[in-house]
Amino acid sequence: MPLVLAENERTIGGLYDSWQDTTGREYHFPNVYRRKVEAGDWFVYYRGVRTLTGRRPNPEYFGMGRITGVWRDAAIPETAPKRGWRWFCSISDYVPFPEPVSWKRNGELFEQIKQNRFRDGVRSISQETYDAILAGSGLVNVGRNAWRLPTPDSRHQLDEKQAWPLVRAAAEGELRNPTPFSSTQTGQRYRIIDVSERQIVIDRLDSPGQATVSAGEVERGIRYLNVAGGRLGRRAMHYTVAKEVTIVHLHPSLRWSDDYNWIEVAGDGLVVTVPPVYADFGQAPDDDPTQLATFARRIRAGQPKFRENLLKLYDERCAITSWGPAAVLEAAHVLLHSHSGNNHVDNGLLLRADVHVLFDKGLIRVHPDTYTVMLDPTLRDGPYGDLHGRSLRPRVNGGHPKREYLRLRWKTSAVVD
After folding, report:
1. What global pTM score does this model have?
2. How many Å is the Cα radius of gyration of the chain?
3. At what angle are helices 241-250 and 160-176 packed, to 10 degrees?
């Protein structure tokens, strides 16, 4: 379930300034909220009316992100009463809202809770409320729970007002000559069975029931596409598969990408691929393991570039502890460098120096299916114990090392129960 994380600004009196939050990176919270905060949760940031210089007119939501790990604040002794414990959570995929979203829309609260509950630092909200807040933020929905800043591209702007007449005309043509069409992902088949002035009715041929596509849904879908620069993730134009598939099928200027994960503006071949973050760096050159074996001290020609790339991908944070600074972070190979010479980032993790040693010795491993950090039993009762069961920190582009490499490493490293 999505969350709201309250992060108020510094105040003159300093009453609320003991929390060590870093916006978009880490959130610090009391033990009372521990059961609510879990790795993988999506959230929106909230701040009240307090500011350093006075008060703002209204509380507001100002950004979104995803929680990637949770650990206890080691500054609080374990012997202290648990009600006094504090926790940190790491954050990835943070995107600030272009414009803050007021806590009310048309006079109605987004969060339908009692006024005194707004004092809670962590609050659960429904997926509907979460989506409604983001829809008013100015961000563009490019996939399920994937939002980014708008990047319009004038070369791929489609006319929103002309979209419905074009789609309706195509639907009328198919009504005269019924031809089934199908989902690119599921293979489910559909057929146009009725067209009216403002609505198209679709028959689901492989499952019971019908679906409708309205003029407003078509116009909104094209608006989302325009703001996204002419390329939208699957199920971002419309979350209902039947509706989205129908719009793309009928609009003459839309197409699916070759991998069927993106909706694109078709026609001129100028569709701009949205690159993943930091995809522009060159990969480090691989080293020849046969040549490495001839040296008493193996020289890794690609190592500096390998580390530089990983520092960017992990935002100078350890992939397991989420801590820096860069000076203590090392580039670790998933598959042993001495065996493969592979310096591609798919084979890399950015790890704190001590964690790197434990990883190389097989005392810390990463499960290839769940990206869960697993500690050898000998480490679980010591200072590293909080790392056991933590989720691997995603990269700034949402990725991880290649699952195949992690699986090979998992099979060959030390046994962990």
Report:
1. 0.46
2. 25
3. 90
